[in-house]
Each structure stands twice: as structure tokens, then as C-alpha cells.
Design goal:
The chain is α+β, with helices and mostly antiparallel strands and 206 residues long. 40% of the residues lie in helices and 22% in strands. It has seven helices and seven strands. The chain has a seven-stranded mixed β-sheet, with helices on both faces. Helix 2 packs antiparallel against helix 4. The relative contact order is 0.16.
């Protein structure tokens, strides 16, 4: 029920949207702000500032798509869709996620994941590849939630998400604006209460 824990302030102040090319420096600033643990989770190990600078430049140059949660002009969370490299399956891009510590464990990752999957489908991709560190329990749980079959090897968890399968959330509109985010929270809470009532038989009319 993490989606339901998105606070009213979070829903009211920010928006989820794709970064334009001129906004890509916001990704670099976001990655540089990550605390040591979040940075390690994002890059599956140590990453200093020079590495992040080079990484952000590469993202801007190779056409990486970034779906970001933006609040007060800052990228506070990002989902990255990296085009397949030479010699790799052209239908399977790599994806990555990062959320700054104050916004972690609030359901934001799920919202970004849904928007990223929608973007990947629009581009004609049929699957997504995800790699995460063995210690990143939150990312592994999120990937599994969206259908990734993870395998552990060489200290990393890797997996694929089949986009040809359309889970239940695929037919739902993706929240992007502050109002959409707020409605997502309300709808999720309503669904959870309905499920709880059904479990206890309280939804039946006497």
C-alpha cells in the first residue's frame, strides 16, 4: 500500500513529466544530490562526482529518456530509459531509477515505473532490462511488482520485463500533474477500503 502513502504535500506540489533536452542538466543535479546510500543503490556501487558528471553527459548525448518528478524546479526522482547499445537487443532498453531520500518509500517509484512503461510501449519496445544491486531491496521489490523475473549473479540482480503482457495498471491513466497525483491517491485508498470490506464480508447488503 505504498502508493497510498504519498503525502498531500507531495501530490499538491510536484508533477511527473518527461524532461526536454535542455532540462537534462536537472538530472545531473539530482544525481549529485543523492545521499551515499541512495547513490550506491542507483549505481550498484561507488560513484564519485566525476563519474556522475560523465554519466549525465552520456545520457544527454545518447538520447536517454528521463521521466522525472519535478518539485520547485528540481528533479527529485527520475526514471531513465536508455536506448539499447550496439550489439544489444534493439527491442530491450535498460532502465534505472533514483529517488532522493526525503521522497523514498512514498510510492513515487511505482508512479514513475508506470509512466516509463507507457513511454517504452509508445516507442515500440517489447521488453525492458533492469539491473540492481543485491542490497537494493526496494528496487528489487518494485521490479518484481511490475513483472521482472530477477536472477542473482556477480553481486547483482538482473531481469527482464515483458511489455507484451499488459498488467491491470496498463489500462489506467498515468498520473502526471498535481491533480492527477492527488486523484491517484484517493482512488488507491478507495480500492483498498473496498478490498478490506470484501474480505470481512462487510460489503454485502443485509
Amino acid at each position: 500500500m505504498r502508493d497510498a502513502s504519498i503525502t498531500t504535500d507531495l501530490a499538491a506540489s510536484g508533477q511527473i513529466r518527461k524532461l526536454s533536452r535542455r532540462e537534462m542538466p536537472l538530472l545531473r543535479e539530482h544525481l549529485l544530490r543523492l545521499d551515499p546510500e541512495s547513490r550506491r543503490d542507483r549505481f550498484n556501487g561507488y560513484a564519485d562526482e566525476s563519474f556522475i558528471e560523465r554519466y549525465a553527459e552520456k545520457c544527454e548525448a545518447d538520447g536517454t529518456v528521463v521521466i522525472a518528478y519535478i518539485d520547485d524546479g528540481k528533479v527529485m526522482a527520475a526514471a531513465e530509459l536508455h536506448p539499447p547499445g550496439d550489439g544489444l537487443d534493439p527491442t530491450t532498453p535498460e532502465i534505472a531509477f533514483s529517488v532522493e531520500r526525503p521522497l523514498r518509500r512514498k510510492g513515487l517509484g511505482s508512479l514513475l515505473f508506470k509512466r516509463l512503461i507507457a513511454e517504452a510501449r509508445m516507442k515500440g519496445y517489447t521488453s525492458l532490462r533492469i539491473t540492481t544491486g543485491a542490497q537494493n531491496d526496494a528496487m528489487r521489490a518494485l521490479a518484481s511488482k511490475f513483472g521482472a523475473h530477477l536472477m542473482f549473479q556477480h553481486g547483482e540482480s538482473t531481469g527482464l520485463i515483458d511489455l507484451r503482457r499488459r498488467p491491470s495498471f496498463a489500462t489506467q491513466p498515468v498520473a502526471t500533474s498535481a491533480a492527477d497525483l492527488a486523484r491517484t491517491v484517493i482512488d488507491f485508498n478507495h480500492a483498498c477500503w473496498k478490498l478490506t470490506l470484501q474480505m470481512y464480508g462487510l460489503d454485502r447488503v443485509a
